[in-house]
Specification:
Elements (H helix, E strand, L loop, with lengths): L8 E6 L8 E7 L2 E7 L12 H4 L1 H6 L8 E2 L8 E2 L2 H12 L1
Antiparallel strand pairs: 1-2, 2-3, 4-5
Length: 96
């Protein structure tokens, strides 16, 4: 039997994982994502989801999740926190 989770509010959004853009209903408790389910009113997914968005609550709570950009000056040096502007500029210059 699954544990019941009380939800403060539901937020309707779109799945970020592929180009289909399935509709999601995201349950929020104490300003944290605690549940994700399909949005039955969404025209393309009609409430159906693959497994990827179902695990979003766990992914968002993991201790390994990066919360800010990091760069390392050289391969043998540790990563250090940088601004978003610096990270995006470095990425753009790398891809040129």
């Amino acid at each position: 039997m699954s544990k019941q989770i009380s939800i403060d509010r539901w937020h309707t959004t779109q799945c970020p994982y592929c180009g289909v853009g399935c509709g999601l209903k995201v349950g929020i408790k104490d300003n944290r994502v605690v549940k994700v389910q399909g949005d039955a009113a969404h025209p393309s997914s009609q409430g159906q989801l693959c497994l990827k968005p179902v695990y979003l609550p766990d992914i968002l709570r993991t201790d390994d999740r990066l919360l800010f950009p990091q760069l390392r000056p050289g391969q043998d040096e540790p990563f250090r926190r940088v601004s978003w502007d610096q990270a995006l500029t470095t990425a753009a210059e790398t891809f040129r």
